[in-house]
Design goal:
Length: 271
């Protein structure tokens, strides 16, 4: 019975992480809130990073055609200089540029962020409020810039927005989409750029997490962890599909309301 309970706990954590990861409500902030409410102090940051791999697999599945196209056309441009493939090559290059700020700041300040904000539920309330206001600001924006219109400046700004999401409570998808739409990107372009940008960041997080888990094999429950990973994959897949429909229908305001309401509950009731 105890083993079954552990499996159910891990499955719940995987589903919870997977569902909150793609939508703009901050999975890291919600996991901190869950740890606070359920007294899960033994939930390690490395395990959270491991679960991100499930979300990564979901993103790869949903955007597989874009990934194949961008990879093939970029390689063809590099080796054959086919001008028709230049726009796809530039798009991939801008994804690389946008990855740098979060990657660099993550390496430099990851330990400080973990030490400062781990368990700081009040800070999550503040950052969720910021996320909600940012989503409210862009709720009616539609944009006019497609993939071919993105500039180096756009890539850098979106990358800096992603770096801000290192703080728990600041949604990664929310921050990058807000940044992209304020720069005039169309909704579908902003969404695609945001989640393709998630791939290198998630890969880096997963590599560090698995490395830490392998060094700590005595405390790792691998079968429950794999079940949690599968749960995260399934939940992320359907959550991202749902979020894509929300974006098309222009209903970001609901996420804004949710983030603000939750922040008020945290700040004035839970703390």
């Amino acid at each position: 019975m105890n083993e079954l309970w552990v499996l159910l706990q891990y499955l719940f954590l995987g589903l919870f992480q997977g569902f909150t990861e793609p939508i703009p409500i901050s999975s890291s902030g919600h996991l901190l809130l869950l740890r606070y409410l359920m007294d899960l102090e033994n939930l390690k940051i490395t395990f959270e990073g491991f679960l991100n791999f499930g979300s990564l697999l979901a993103v790869l599945l949903i955007y597989r055609k874009d990934i194949v196209r961008l990879t093939a056309n970029s390689l063809r441009y590099i080796f054959k200089r086919n001008k028709e493939d230049a726009s796809d090559f530039r798009f991939v290059l801008f994804l690389v540029i946008a990855t740098i700020p979060a990657g660099l700041l993550g390496v430099l300040f990851e330990d400080w962020i973990s030490a400062t904000f781990s368990g700081n539920i009040r800070m999550v309330g503040i950052t969720l409020f910021i996320t909600g206001i940012a989503l409210w600001i862009i709720r009616n924006l539609r944009g006019h810039k497609g993939e071919a219109d993105i500039t180096v400046k756009d890539a850098i700004i979106i990358g800096l927005a992603q770096a801000v999401s290192l703080l728990p409570g600041i949604s990664r998808s929310g921050a990058t989409i807000v940044g992209a739409m304020l720069l005039g990107l169309k909704q579908d372009t902003a969404l695609r750029f945001s989640f393709l940008l998630y791939i290198p960041v998630s890969l880096g997080t997963m590599i560090f997490s698995v490395s830490d888990m392998l060094e700590d094999t005595g405390d790792v429950l691998w079968i429950p962890s794999l079940i949690a990973l599968i749960g995260a994959l399934i939940a992320s897949y359907f959550a991202l599909k749902w979020f894509m429909n929300i974006m098309k229908s222009g209903n970001l305001k609901y996420f804004a309301w949710y983030c603000v309401a939750l922040s008020i509950i945290i700040l004035f009731i839970l703390t």
